[in-house]
Design brief:
It contains six helices and four strands, in the order H-H-E-H-E-H-E-H-E-H. It has a four-stranded parallel sheet with strand order 3-2-1-4, with helices on one face. Strand 1, helix 3 and strand 2 form a beta-alpha-beta unit. Helix 3 runs parallel beside helix 4 and helix 5 packs parallel to helix 6. The longest helix has 25 residues.
Amino acid sequence: MSLYRSVVWFAKGLREYTKSGYESACKDFVPHDLEVQIPGRVFLVTGGNSGIGKATALEIAKRGGTVHLVCRDQAPAEDARGEIIRESGNQNIFLHIVDLSDPKQIWKFVENFKQEHKLHVLINNAGCMVNKRELTEDGLEKNFAANTLGSARLFIDIVLKRRASSA
């Protein structure tokens, strides 16, 4: 990286990512802007059974949105779904078990989903961290297949192809 770019990046970092940058940004923050209700909106959250995905799905459910959780493992996904329903009071939480490292499963899921549901927002949150090198049945490295190709495949097949067919 050139010296110029390094200096510009450093200055931007000082301006935006320090305490003074935070305090400056707070002046323009309006808490009321976060109070949004979203009934009738359909969200698909990958990796919604834990962490940020689960917190996101819960908040969407609390605000009245319909949530489709796409998870790899049945038991933790069912537990998360039950917890989200209990905490939000929203019954419109649906569960889909899909391994995002498997293109065939993604394709099958997308085809069924597109025929049965309308989607407003796709939140690609799922990811895996396989420490030992592991290949999928298609010969792809598992981390790459799940974290990159799986998310891209969902986006292309659900969002882009739907836009192209409706245009």
